[in-house]
Amino acid sequence: MKNRIVYVGKARKRYWRETFHAYLFLLPAFIILGAFVFWPIGYSLILSFFKWDFTNQRAPFFHGFTNYTQLFKLQMALPYSFWQACVYSAFYIVAAFLLARLVFLWTHYFKAFESHRLGRERLLRMTAIYAALTVLGLLFAHNGLIWPLFGTVVLMGSLYFFENRRPYAFKKPMGLWSLAVSVLLLYFVLKRISLVRYELFDFLLLTKESSVFVKSIFNTIYYVILTTPAEIVISLFIALLLNLPLKLKPFFRTAYFVPYVTSVVAISLVWRWIFNDEYGLFNYFLSLIDISKVKWLTQETWTIPTIAIVSIWKSVGYNAIIFLAGLQSIDKSYYEAAKVDGASNLQNFYHITWPLLSPTTFFILIVSVIGNFKVFTQVYVLYQALPGPYNNSGMTMVYYIFDRFYAHQQMGEASAAAYVLFMIILVLTFFQFRVGKQRVQYVG
Hints:
Elements: H1 2-47, E1 50-51, E2 61-62, H2 66-71, H3 82-107, H4 109-112, H5 120-140, H6 146-163, H7 176-192, H8 200-210, H9 212-242, H10 249-261, H11 264-274, H12 281-288, H13 303-328, H14 332-340, H15 345-356, H16 358-373, H17 377-382, H18 397-407, H19 411-439
Antiparallel strand pairs: 1-2
């Protein structure tokens, strides 16, 4: 027993000695990370709660969440409130959903319900009730806030009564994509015929024009939506080509990867000449196919697409190399078995390549979304230190932080904007990880 106690004591001393030596080797890295990463992050969080600008540089004072509320302060009054827009939009979405279900029921009536307990009389009664509730809700929707709220509750209650409590009423469920497309189409039909007066998307558009920071969020999300899917699709296509038995394959790999390692400033300068309105190469090629010149750098609507084109061209090579590594890691026996079964190339891609590439796609998606939210240099160089040609059309969140910090010397507000950006990226990354657990297929 005594020998065992001595042995355990020596093992514990050896463990702590080795742990101390390990952390001693890691100490330089901790010092560098602490000085250039952890300390700035913590200090900027504290700074976001202080009033610190060029008038209070020597004595910044604490004023709570004022910097955060100042970011979302509107410069002009809106015709309706955010909650009003949410309630009305919820009503119109539910109404569009019920109309989509009615269209689907009548479309499949003769095939699905001809010999079922749901007879024609019941279907007509359901149609009359849904249509009456929707029409009454649309007629009274513009007279206060209580009518659409009441209509939403009634419509959802009727949906529960007819289809959940009586499951035989609808045996064949709608597909998720067909349901979503039908609801969107009917929603925009309602909006097109001017029945939708108060709507959340229009509210956000009005808010965008009333707040520079909200517009920067809108522009950044618009940029991410344009850039991320295009990067993944183009990169995957290039990777599939590079995975074929081609000649000069190392040359093509290098050619696609060179833009990624090239300076963003140099790339943006070159693309600024390519996008030139008068004698740029882009407009020259468009003129060859009888397309009129596009004002890439001087028209507001083309600001974010222009920035997206440059970013896609730069990052597509890196993503293609990652996809190529994922393609080469797939066991060839899967394709050999599929060939024996007579599968086509499209079936191989849909049932073998794409599912087994899900971990690689998931990684590229996470990295691309985080990187695209931090876009700055392309805007700064393409538009010569301005956030777009006019009306802040190229104002992104990182550019807003830069503008508040360096141009306006409002360090506290810039720090608050940085943490709003951090929270947006954190929430999106968390959501992607939750979805990725269900969709990503890891093969050992």
